[in-house]
Description:
The protein is α/β, with parallel strands linked by helices. The chain is 31% helix and 18% strand.
Amino acid sequence: MSGAEPEHAPVGAPEPAPVRVPAEPSGAKGGTAFVAIDLGATSGRVMLGVLHPPAGDGPAGADAGPPAGQAAPAERVGTASAERVGTVPVERSGTASAGVVRGRTDPVRGRTDPVRVELVECGRFPNGPAVTDGGLHWDFEALWDGIVTGLREAASIASGRGLDVRGIGVDSWAVDHGFLDDDGALLAQPWCYRDARTDAVRERVYERIPFAEHYAVNGLQDLPFTSLFQLVASAAERDGRGQAVPGAADADAAADAERATDWSRAALVLLVPDLITYRLTGRRVAEVTNASTTGLLDARTRTWSDAHVERLVREFPELGDLRSRLPELVEPGTAVGDLRPDLGDETGLGAVPVFAVCSHDTASAVAAAPLPQAAGQREAPGRETPGREAAGQESPGQESPGRETPGREAAGQETTGQREAAAYISSGTWSLVGLELDAPVLTPASREANFTNELGIDGTVRYLRNVMGLWILNECVREWSEADGAPVDLPALLEKAAREPGGRCLIDVDGEEFLAPGGMPGRVRAAIDRRAPQGVADTRPAAARVILDSLAAAYARVVHRAGQLAGVEVTAIHVVGGGSQNDLLNRLTAEAAGLPVHAGPVEATALGNVLVQARAAGALTGSDGGPASRADLRAAVRASTAPRTYEPTPSRGLPA
């Protein structure tokens, strides 16, 4: 999204069993591994990604799995048999992951068979915002402690297996950030995007710089917590004329003053994954996929928009020298620096390179989504100017808000689909639904449909809309569990929800009334009563079915609209992330969209993180010995996972 993340193991999907790594793994020791630091809003993890060569390259007797080049067969699920819950294999060591080969993992050159990735969880630690200093903040030091502990365990596991750890990468949710002072110290705990301090700021900004002018540059959908709004809130709780912002309470005056003090002392703004990378290496950079969610980046040039930043500062002088506080931008795959010597000693990892990966966790997940290559889509990394179409794209510095992106219809008219493409859903607490494109879509029609243009791997654009995802069900289950004094049996709840009549009531899952935590079952019931007061029983399974029916219908609408606006024909949907384990939601999505749904990998974010590092380190190359393409990365994903396919039933479907 233009902000938050698909959290790990959302409540709407069964929690996978913890990974247990055998003390003496079977098969030959040795090989290459990479560490993925993967931070979500409910938990953080440190994962070890082990590269295995194609079957047949290992020593005799190694666990070769399927024949070389053949992934575990995908399971096709008809709608009549897809009511099962929690049966999707999780691609982790010690589970039903297919195709692990023990053996040589030197750089793989000139092969037609893909390598495979084994993921080993080395540490998991809780995360979540807490009310401190007058608002919702993240406990950054607790995150850091969990990361260091996980890195120690990764070093221990790698040593025990004789693995050569060749890189570390960090991904997390987006938009949230911290301020560094002149000495590089973190001034305060980062604010959480769910804090209400930006509620009044968004309209205040749009009064001075209309949404259309923002969209023409950054291509971002209208969301209340974009980094731009957070920065305006941090700079001052009072506008340039000294008038109080509507909704700011006198009781918050002390907190407001503290926020202004933090901003006045800030020398640099770093997003959460960049803060971690800075702590690891001592180098301060901003990786572009996450930076594209700030509202300050030009979606066409993949650079900070000096013109847009200057306009913002003119309208909000309290922002001061904002441009000087924005760090150097780097693309995914950039070697940022080696692990600091003290951390190398403390963790046992030594001087390991730290790479900028797709640091927005959704960008990493999309990089690992096994999407087919669309006709005419750019493939080779780094061989064309990033972010621009082959012909006619504006050059950097041409930031005319009124100009349309070449190749798109002017005046907001939809384009006719000229090629086929698969959509993706990065499914978790939030769901990011969209397409991978070569260039942003900045038309008035796209803006009015509230689609976002976030940056992706290899110069691509993640053209998507943010859908509320499993957050609503998460919150209901949490509150039901609190009321019961024991955890709700989620598989049983979903089984009962599957037996409820479908399509009776659809609620607006993207309504802002569902954004804040607390009181969710009551808000869902109120929404049901407004739409179908007599048609839906006041039971938990009925409520869960309405939520999932509504979510599937929202997915279908967004997928079809994305295809219309981008001028492509969508032929399938790939669901990745924790929410891909929810069989009922996958089936309902296939029915609502009238398209096959391919579910998996569950661990798409960690896989994308590892594969970008492997390519950057030269451990994963293309058949010509050059850098691996996106198709090569996704071939490795398909070889490493066991997807499930849900076919639509032509006679059924949900109202759109």
